[in-house]
Amino acid sequence: MGSSGESSLTQTLASLAKEHRLRSLRTMRPLCRPEIVLDGQSRVDFCSNDYLGLSQHPALKAATQAAVDQYGTGTGGARLIGGTLDLHTQLEEAVAAFKGTEAALVFNSGYQANVGVLSGLVQRRDIILADKLNHASLVDGALLAQAKLIRYPHLDLTALEDKLAHCPKGVQKWIVTDTVFSMDGDQADLTALAALMERYDAWLILDEAHATGIYGEHHRSGLWETTGIGAHPRVIQIGTFSKALGSFGAYVAASREVVTALIQFSRSFVYSTSLPPGVVAANLAALELVQEEAALTQQLWANVDGFRGRLDALNLGLPAWRSPIIPWILGDASRTVQAAQTLLEAGFFVQAIRPPTVPEGTARLRITVSSLHQPDHLEALAQVLKTL
Ligand SMILES: *Cc1c(COP(=O)(O)O)cnc(C)c1O
């Protein structure tokens, strides 16, 4: 920006608008999920990350209501200053059991967890090796850590290994990746990453935001569970309560030593008021539900497969991987915005995702399927996509 702040801000915004990149907020209200009211009209929501519909589940609502009645609405303090309720401790024990780790720590959001883990644990002299398409909060955490940041090409473990091999001896290395990528739904090869972690004596930080609650046979605790490797002193698993778990907040599941370090050094943990009791109670209820009710995830995967089958039958291209996140890449930002508008007029809320959220030239519609969609919703959306 130039010296005259205001006019250069005006110019910056004007040029964003010209490139069809100006972002704005859209206000919606749930009707009966997945139906919502947007711009005064009823639409079917295909952009929520509430994959299992748990935000509407009676068990979560009842848990929140009961906790508010008993504890009130706020905690009145940060975790280290009177803000640790018995509910927070219970939730941390429940997360550690869910993930099979020694310990866990609850953060106020996934963004704060990622920023707090990287800035709290990584030293300036260390090296962070991060997938190029990692979530922005992991990038911001790496920048705050002020360590050397190397971003390897998306999912390219050969490139990652080459970079690991070229790190100076004795330097601590941190491999950082989303497990399921938020804008494409594709997945990191965690077994291969674990082997690299061992071979190069590195740490492995995994962001399970889009995997928690839906991947993993037994606990449905995320993609790491599917490797069968379990707890490891140098693996740090981060996940959120804000997506498939239908609520809000995040956790870090790791060794007791890592959790102790986070309590000391993670500024986004230390300097923020703790999650309110109603939210913590909903998180506890959500963890219990996903582990006990396999039908929830079965319905989601049935819908994902049903939708993929419809796209396939209409000869519309499909990503090779199976995920509730289905990217519909159109490339050009203005064309993507236009397509989202066409879908909206047809009654579907699908978000257009443009750079800088995704790389240049890969603007897309990001469709998310949830367990709440009915076969009619899936069929109708596929039919409209065919006309785009
Ligand atoms: C959504 C998301 C986050 C942030 O989580 P919030 O709880 O929404 O702050 C972090 N990482 C990934 C990969 C995400 O998709």
Protein described:
The chain has about 400 residues and is of the alpha/beta class. About 40% of the residues lie in helices and about 15% in strands. The chain is built from 13 helices and 14 strands. The chain has helices at about 5-20, 60-70, 85-100, 110-120, 135-145, 155-165, 190-200, 255-265, 265-270, 275-290, 295-315, 335-345, 375-385; strands at about 30, 35-40, 40-45, 105, 125-130, 150, 175-180, 205, 235-240, 250-255, 325-330, 350, 350-355, 365-370. The strands form 3 sheets. It has a 7-stranded mixed sheet with strand order 4-10-9-8-7-5-6, with helices on both faces. It has a 4-stranded mixed sheet with strand order 1-2-3-12. Helix 4 runs parallel beside helix 5. The chain is globular. It starts with a helix and ends with a helix. The mean pLDDT is about 95. It binds pyridoxal-5'-phosphate. Pyridoxal-5'-phosphate binds near residues 109, 178, 209, 210 and 240.
Outline:
This protein is of the alpha/beta class. Helix content is about 40%, strand content about 15%.
Order of strands side by side in the largest beta sheet?
A: 4-10-9-8-7-5-6
Whole-number mean pLDDT: 95
Q: Helix share of residues?
A: 40-55%
Cα-based radius of gyration, to the nearest Å: 21 Å
**What is the overall shape?**
globular
Distance between the termini: 39 Å
Task: Tell me how many strands there are.
Answer: 14
Low-confidence stretches: none
How much beta, percentage-wise? 15-25%
Number of helices: 13
Bound ligands, named by name, code or SMILES: pyridoxal-5'-phosphate
Q: Give a quick account of the main beta sheet: strands, pairing sense, barrel closure.
A: 7 strands, mixed
Structural class: alpha/beta
| Run of helices and strands | HEEEHHEHEHEHEHEEEHHHHEHEEEH
